[in-house]
Each structure stands twice: as structure tokens, then as C-alpha cells.
Design goal:
alpha+beta; three-stranded antiparallel β-sheet; 3 strands
């Protein structure tokens, strides 16, 4: 997906919990776009992917179809489009961090 859309990401984590971050100054914005757009499609998602044996090919294809469409939006923003027009809610000012 990253190559298909010309987006640079870094993938890390363990095999069952994959995470990625955008290699862009807009990483937090893109993460928020993924969360908001995937919620619209019925997924609670961000830049972490928790793999489960319950994920069938059908489920994965649908999930990655929606995620690919979001990557297309991110590519538009990387190419100069204004990210604010893609948010329905306020965009985040900082990343969530744990206190413990």
C-alpha cells in the first residue's frame, strides 16, 4: 500500500502487533485521519494492527480496501492538499501518552 500510493512509512513491532508511522512531519495528522475515517467505516483503528486468527481473508480485504483509500487521501495531503478539509472533528494538537 505504501509503495502503491507513494507514501513513506516505517513498520515496527512484533509479528502479532504491527505498528507503523509515517515518515513525515504530518505523522500525527495522518494517524488521526486514519482513526476518524476508519471509524466512519466501523473500525476502531489507528497505526497499530493487532493480528488475530479471527481475521478472515474477507475481513482483511475489506479493512485494507478502506485503509488504501485513506492512504490515497494522505498522498494528496503530502502533495500539498490542505489536511483540514479531510477532518470532520478537530484535528489533534498532541499525541496521547500514558501516565504510568
Amino acid at each position: 500500500m505504501q509503495k502503491k500510493n507513494g507514501i513513506k512509512i516505517q513498520i515496527f513491532g512484533i509479528e502479532s502487533i504491527l505498528k507503523f508511522k509515517f515518515l513525515s512531519e504530518n505523522n500525527l495528522i495522518y494517524k488521526s485521519i486514519i482513526t476518524e475515517k476508519m471509524l466512519e467505516k466501523g473500525y476502531l483503528a489507528n497505526t497499530a494492527f493487532y493480528i488475530s486468527i479471527a481475521h478472515t481473508d474477507k475481513i482483511l480485504k475489506k479493512y485494507f480496501f478502506h485503509l488504501n483509500n485513506i492512504f490515497k487521501i494522505i498522498k494528496k495531503i503530502e502533495d500539498g492538499d490542505n489536511y483540514k478539509k479531510y477532518f470532520k472533528s478537530k484535528f489533534p494538537l498532541s499525541e496521547f501518552t500514558r501516565f504510568n
